[in-house]
Amino acid sequence: MFTEIFVHLGEGLLEAFQPLNMMMIFFGCLAGLFVGALPGLGSVNGVAILLPITFLVPPTSAIIFLAALYYGAMYGGAISSITLGIPGASTAVATVFDGRPMAQKGLADQALMAAAIASFLGGTVSIVLFTLFAPPLAKFALAFGPPEEFSLMILAFATFVGLGGDDIPKTIFSILIGLLLATIGLDIISGRPRLIFFDIPGFLHGINFLVLAIGIYGIGEMLWTLETTQGRVQIENVKITWKRFVTNLGQIKEYIGGATLGSFLGFFVGTLPAAGATPASLMSYGLTKTFSKDPESFGKGKPAGVAAPEAANNSASTGSMLPMITLGIPGSPTTAVLLGGMIIWGLRPGPLLFAEHPDFVWGLVGSMYIANFVTVVLNLALIPVFVKVLATPFTVLAPIIFTLCVVGGFAPTQDMHDVWLMLIFGVFGYLLRKLDYPVAPAVLAIVLGPLAESSLRQTLIAGQGSPAVFLERPIALTCFFFALLLVLYPVYQAFTRKSKKAEAAGA
Amino acid sequence: MKNSLKKIVTGVSALALATTAAVSAAQAWEPKKPVELIIMAGKGGGADQMARLWQGIIQQHNLSPRPFIPVNKPGGSGGEALQYLKSKAGDNHVVMVTLNSYYTTPIMQPELAVDISTFTPIARMALDTFLLWVRPDQGIKTLDEYVEKVKAAGKDWKVGGTGSGQEDSILTAMMMAEFGYEVTYIPFPGGGTVAKNLIGGHIDSTVNNPSEQGEFYRAGQSMPLVQFNDERSPAYPDTPTAKELGHDIVYYMQRSINGPADMDPEAADWYRDLFKKVFDSEEWQKFCSEDGINCDTWLDTAALTEFHKNGLARHKALIEQVGAKAITGE
Fold first, then answer.
1. CA–CA separation, A18 vs A127, rounded Å?
2. Could you give the ipTM of this predicted complex?
3. Does A191 touch chain B (CB under 8 A)?
4. Residue A390 to residue A397: CA distance in whole angstroms
5. What's the predicted TM-score (pTM) here?
6. Which of A170, B65, B85, B235 minimizes the number of CB atoms within 10 Å of its CB?
7. Could you tell me the sign of the dihedral formed by the alpha carbons of A421, A426, A432, A435, in that order?
8. Residue A341 and residue B56: Cβ atoms within 8 Å?
């Protein structure tokens, strides 16, 4: 079986090395970097805008271009998250948590490098897994029905424990705010409007996750930085030397663990229809923090906190190609647009695509190997340019950030209503921060809330109101079990630490 | 003071109108910015696939000076999309791809206060078909076997479909009324997800459109038992129609393009001509024949207005007949 795969892969790589396809990869990655770095543009819009261009070239080259763009955007999202504190895309929200504090400490180059290397690792792991196990994994994705999806969401919520910090009541408060915001809009099951405040039609489409994330992180962060720096230059003397580059490279051992975990987790979550890269990156961050030796240092500028989500979002982006190709179901909004492209080119995604169009599928796989390599080189080379941003006085930077946030808030739904909401969330996020509330759990809750709600209700409808269905599903039970362990782990940790302290004191 | 202001405003708008008229007389209307192509359903479903194909055809043949940007608004069985179109009255740069939820959602959700007769019909692109799908491993070969099996299972039989009150749930309710059985109906966000859940064994049957199940059927993972057309579709020559089997269930899905209320007639004409070209394109006709979608007759604005009127009346009657509760499962 594997020899066959390698023959195909070899052909695919040859296909990807065609001059036209190489060009497509290079420009796709470059375009993706910028698309990803611009808040609100994101890979979805980038792919959608550039889709027409691809009609000029053969389908395989076209999908290679779009996949490279998608790939580049996953890397690019980290750039604005780290340098400006605005998540460039929803997938890069978790990168802000530690990326921004690192930049403020003058370690932006380290953070960018950790992001690039982790992304490379995530990309590599996922492509290898994709190459070797695509068909069996597609079968596994099919086994995921509503009960399994719900259990996965519970598992994701359990990683909150890692995200929340020490103050449990404040974490729960933050989760509940996020869940409440997630219920606004039209109910998926009955189609009825819920929590439409003052009958404002803008609430009908719900609260877009990016509106909350850009508001809290972009605007909130801008207000916070204005207060702390009083408009001065944040970082003086950003000098990138070869020596510093090599030292930074030596840091890898600090975050390789989190990045590896993120790579596998990201791929797995990405292959499941309906999940995608955003929950994957948040889960990866939470898990890495929970199992870290010093979870307290997360959120204050730890390279592992940048590497874990970045590895996961790249890995998940490859993973989400799998349900798209084999089931015709996009695992993420971007793959949905790619799917549209495939239909236009006369390629029907489905279980037969692998067998009937091997040149297409393997050309795509081959290009992913090369795109991954091209993006990491581009990224490392451009770090000095990105870091320059931080040498700009904040009085100049703040209006730019503000404009980018407004554009980013407007772009996903093209509704001014969301821009106002984003500004409100910004002020609200700033206040929460002053009061020392963790905001990350709210962000995760608004992503996972709708997914958890619909899958739970589908399960209960199927079981005619009885939750006993969950007990009959081995995958769901396994997820619940791990979720329970995750919740109990910090308790256990605290307990052992205390007893050690007591022992030390006793001795 | 107020009056003089009013006069000025009237004067200015009259002037503006005159200028617009002069411009439009000089050259026909054309979009001046990207056109939003609203899809009242989720990604990966039938409507979504078609909208993206149309977008591609428009780009590829250079039919529009500005691109069409597909935007999915699947919330609330299309309620979100309908609300959006309602809020866009007079906007010449928004058109919507509609399904039968165009009729059913305003009936089922009166609080939306949407009256589709105020919208601007542009063109009907196709009549999509419905088939009843099961998995081969269930050992069901005919409709009679299916009915027998569902009756035995009762509420344990799980039918998947798109949102409550949408076409899948109506067809399911029609079948319940015809065959006298009861099932549990589970709503999913889009036809693609429904198809996947049947293949994965999480639900027992679906009434998917061909474009959603076709690839799984070709791979031998699902099979149609009956089709709900007037006549057998050329793409499924071996599947009997419900009519042939003595059951009067005929149900189609309309796929049409509609603009918001008060769209300029010149703009509506431009879109109508554009979608005629898309309809006649080789790509679209090929997609239709492969999927067994009925794309024989194209309806223009006038015919579509009449068609919508009948569609709305028929769905009102259907919903009354089977009962709104049977559709939403409440």
1. 20
2. 0.80
3. yes
4. 8
5. 0.81
6. B65
7. negative
8. yes
From first CA to last CA, the distance across chain B in angstroms is: 57
Beta-carbon count within 10 A of B3 CB:
7
Q: Which residues is B224 bridged to in the sheet?
A: B133
Token pair in block for residue B219: 């791979």
Q: Is residue B87 within 8 angstroms of chain A, CB to CB?
A: yes
Which domains, from first to last, does chain B contain? 33-129+252-322 (3.40.190.150), 132-251 (3.40.190.10)
Greatest Cα-to-Cα distance within chain B, rounded to the nearest angstrom:
81
Could you tell me the residue range of the domain that residue A469 belongs to?
2-506
Q: Which residues from chain B sit within 8 angstroms of residue A339, using beta carbons? A: 43-44, 52
Cβ-based neighbour number of residue A324 at 10 Å? 22
The helix (H) or strand (E) run that includes residue A389 is none
Tens digits of residue pLDDT in B60-111: 888 988 888 888 787 767 888 898 899 889 999 999 999 898 998 888 888 8
Bridge partners (DSSP) listed for residue A292: none
Q: What is the dihedral of CA A388, A392, A394, A397, to 10 degrees?
A: -80
* Residues constituting chain A: 507
Instruction: Give the amino acid at A130.
Output: F
DSSP assignment of B223-270 equals EEEEE-SSS--TT-TTSPBTTTTT------EEEEEEE-TT--HHHHHH
| A337 chain-B contacts, CB cut-off 8 A | 52
Q: How many domains does chain A have?
A: 1
Q: In this structure, which amino acid lies at residue B184? A: T
Structure tokens, A320: 């989400």
Report helix, strand or coil for A164. coil
> In the block, which residue shows the tokens 């009256």?
B115
Pairing mode of beta strands A193-194, B35-39: unpaired
Provide the shortest C-alpha distance from residue A49 to chain B (in Å): 8
